[in-house]
Amino acid sequence: MKVKMLSRNPDNYVRETKLDLQRVPRNYDPTLHPFEVPREYIRALNATKLERVFAKPFLASLDGHRDGVNCLAKHPKSLATVLSGACDGEVKIWNLTNRKCIRTIQAHEGFVRGICTRFCGTSFFTVGDDKTVKQWKMDGPSYGEVEEPLHTILGKTVYTGIDHHWKDPAFATCGQQVDIWDEQRTNPICSMTWGFDSINSVKFNPIETFILGSCASDRNIVLYDMRQATPLKKVILDMRTNTICWNPMEAFIFTAANEDYNLYTFDMRALDTPVKVHMDHVSAVLDVDYCPTGKEFVSASFDKSIRIFPVNKSRSREVYHTKRMQHVICVRWTADSKYIMCGSDEMNIRLWKANASEKLGVLASRERAAQDYNQKLKEKFQHHPQIKRIARHRHLPKSIYSQIQEQRIMREARRRKELNRRKHSKPGSVPVVEERKKHVVAVVK
Amino acid sequence: MQAAEMNAMRAAEGLLALSQQEELVDLQDYPLSASEDEGDSDGERKHQKLLESIGSLDGKKRWKLAERSEASLKVSEFNVSSEGSGEKLLLSDLLEPAKTSSSLAAVKKQLSRVKSKKAVELPLNKQEVERINREVAFNKTSQTLSKWDPIVLKNRQAEQLVFPLEKEPASFVPIEHVFGSWKARTPLEQEIFNILYKNKQPVTDPLLTPMEKASLKAMSLEEAKMRRAELQRARALQSYYEAKARREKKIKSKKYHKIVKKGKVKKALKEFEQLQKVNPAAALEELEKIEKARMMERMSLKHQNSGKWAKSKAIMAKYDLEARQAMQEQLAKNKELTQKLQVVSESEEEEKGTEEEELLVPDAVNEIQMCTDGPNPWMLRNCNSDAKGEIQKDPEQPPEPMVQEVSESEEEEKPGGEEEVLLQEFEERRSLRKSSELSKNAEPVGSQKTKDSSSQEVLSELKALTQKLNQKNCQSKKQNVNLVKTVLQGQREECAPEEEEPLLLQRPERVQTLEDLEDLDHEEYSQIRELSRPVLEGERTERTTDNQTDASKGKKKEQMIDLQNLLTTKSPSVKSLAVPTAIEELEDEEEKHQKQIIKEAFAGDDVIRDFLKEKKEAVKASKPKDVDLTLPGWGEWGGIGLKPSAKKRRRFLIKAPEGPPRKDKNLPNVIISEKRNIQAAAHQVQVLPYPFTHHQQFERTVQTPIGSTWNTQRAFQKLTTPKVVTKPGHIIKPIKAEDVGYCSSSRSDLSVTLSNPKRPTGHHKKQLKKNSID
């Protein structure tokens, strides 16, 4: 006699280890689980509150510099290594895991204006106020050797910035003009100028590596093509741009940190209107750096705070500040997108978490699932007033807080005045101008 | 200015089309430059004057002007007066005199060739050129950049992005490569290296020392070949053997396996016998082995009918002969394995009976112990079975001769496998009944009684239950009657004592009802009694078939209607009065007629009434509703068409609290909606958030739950996937053309820059030099 039997796969009910929870078959009949919206709302509220409770972004402060930190650079191959240059010409290499300085070099006399690493991570370049470009080995001098640069190039003018090409042994410096150097030669292989003012910073595009962007003190941003050895286009803004940063995932997008407290994200093919104006700072923005995922960027400001902006939002999602942090001069986002470093006037480099409430370290799968769920809940209910209120709340230093108030009043007054003018003049004579278009003075071909 | 711009534009066009150079303008027509364009006759004159004045400043160098022989406004520097000022000298003018003379043919040809040639344009000024260059370069660059558009769009819209984008190939660099350039420098390092080199430790190739290498080399080729062949053979043999074993294992026939097993056993026996003859010591060892196996068997629960298979067989044994046999076989095997072998070694066939007895002796001993001491699972079963069999077959027999009986009963029952199956079924009950059995053993005579006692108990329980039920019934009736009793005190006194008797159950009921009926029939004067009657009515209608009751009921009903009539009949009469009076007031016919017309015209829309109705509805809708928590059938007997009693309904009706008065209470023509809940509004979204285009869309997203409470695990995971996933400790590099399937240019940017022909380096260098000199 053949007996047919129901057979069940033991995988469906046997747990892998005894520490696992028993798998319980569930009935998903919605009538058995009522009040889904209120329950999820409460969960979202709790998740938001917990996020605020656990928001402790400050990790460490690296101290050792004897003057303000003027520039920072990431190591392209090692996450734990950071380089920093100070205003007294000292360059330090730090180990982030130990939070200790590995190596100190007296690189220049006067400021270290710029620092950049070679794409392979074996050496790095510095420029200083002493009109020199120096190349250094990343590893320290071995036993019995004297600390000295691999190469030194003496220039005629002061170099204010440097950036290395992403693939080739070439680098670009800026000062009076933008020079592109072959690593092997002592003369620039090409130099490009447009206008006469000094150039603050130069940056290579990380994706289409032959494109460069620079910003000069005559309020303009100039784009160059290295292959054709020619400038491409120039956009003039209301005020001076301090630095720019290219999006590492979108070849034609870059963000400019401006003196007028704003950041402008441009599509380089259409410079007449910025894609987005990011406004939240209350003082000049000094530095900007993209998250390696290209979804966010961090900006350092003279108002003693750093802010994190989503690329497609005009308002910041996060602001970091401490009582002791002075004007933040440089900021970098680490290559694993988890941390932010900022160097400030009071000689310290600070290490922050990119997500203030994120748990560091390895997560269990169940923990991760819960975290993802909470994140989705927060997203889902983010527009609800009670949740929004909690999620948006940040403590700010009094100076920033009062300045925000003041600027709000000013903006409101300006808006009111414009409205009144429009009201009392011939219709159409006072047109409505977009915020994005207000700040661009001209585009020069 | 405009002219200049135009010019520049044209020049730009010219430059762009420089390579083609198809269209050329005649020298005559085309103005060469802006300055020349302006050069009218007037300007030229001034220019002349200026030249003259300059010339007069230092007269030494200048030659003397020729004497003027004809009247002319203009005198050229080169002694030729140009007649017709402003006119240009044309090539045709020069050719005219040459036409006549034939000797000048070669010159003519040359000249005509010159005529056909086109003039080269003037170069543009530097700014213009640079600007054009920039524009061209920008267009080119934007074109190369726009290949990224689809990728950027895809990444922006992606549900999930996992970083780093490219898969890192795991590459292990051999340690020699890493330390290739490294040399020992410090004294400590040098010391360590010296030691290592002295011992010839492998530094660069860490696998083999020189010694090992030498030994490797020592083995000859033939030897290696032989060894290899040997190994191959062994492997092949093994594989054959394995294949055979697998094939045999796959055979499903039970018979085959039985035969194989038997063969094995026989073989083993033969070997054993041989061993006994040849080598008694080895045989002894073998024996010991068997003994050990027996011990193991006794210790384990194998073949004890406690396994999964055995249990399933036990269930089937009732119906299936084969299963029964299989079980028996297994038990037999158990017994066989647990047997002491000394017995076996002696002659087996001589004394069956004694052997059996011998076999059973230890069991019996165990049994007795079991009964007294505690549970040994498989021994107990046997004991139990014996006891039970005894009970079933001859319950009257005293348990004192049990020990002898056991063997008998076992012998009897062995063939019938049924018994054993049953035994297992009763195993659970055994423990419960054990005590009673013990007691049974103690008092041999009363065994039958105790056996019956259980059934008696059940009976007694049933009785008790029925008694209780009866009592309850009686009590409820009593209560009912008590109600009536309070009203009619005097007449009910006879039945009351009867009802109070608890033991006689059925009689008092009947008596009570009958007497009730009689009472009710006889006395119909009090209304109070009629009020109390409906309570008892149900019972009465069921139980009585008396005709007399019908009459009384009829009377009762009449009285009830009388009371109600007062209320119900009134209203229609009033209405009938009111309507005619209203009509009578409007007697005037014309007016009436007109009104009629208007009424007919606006028959459909009675606005005021509609509004009032609407308002009434709105008020009704806004009123908080009562909550009815009655559950039909709860605490009552069930059935179809069940209705909870009014009392119960009242008991479980939660009245909604009266809300604040409506704002439009005193405004007859207004409806003020009070739907908005201020408390809730603080938690609600006021404005439609950005990406949504319709409020329903937003509501839907909020209403679909994403938690695992409402979704399956898979759906939950899908719903909660994060948008961006990054691996901790991994460097995320900028996106590359190769990552997304584009091929990047093979030449590096640097080489392109170096080979660029229009590299302005030299020019700039000159400029720089100039600057430095200045």
UniProtKB/TrEMBL annotation, chain A:
Any one GO biological process: spindle assembly involved in female meiosis
SUPFAM superfamilies attached to this UniProt entry: WD40 repeat-like
Cellular compartments per GO CC: cell junction; centrosome; Cul4-RING E3 ubiquitin ligase complex; cytosol; nucleoplasm; small-subunit processome
Keyword Iron-sulfur: no
Limits of the Sof1-like protein domain: 354-440
Domain of life: Eukaryota
Function: Part of the small subunit (SSU) processome, first precursor of the small eukaryotic ribosomal subunit. During the assembly of the SSU processome in the nucleolus, many ribosome biogenesis factors, an RNA chaperone and ribosomal proteins associate with the nascent pre-rRNA and work in concert to generate RNA folding, modifications, rearrangements and cleavage as well as targeted degradation of pre-ribosomal RNA by the RNA exosome. Participates in the 18S rRNA processing in growing oocytes, being essential for oocyte nonsurrounded nucleolus (NSN) to surrounded nucleolus (SN) transition.
Protein name: DDB1- and CUL4-associated factor 13
Organism: Cavia porcellus
Gene: DCAF13
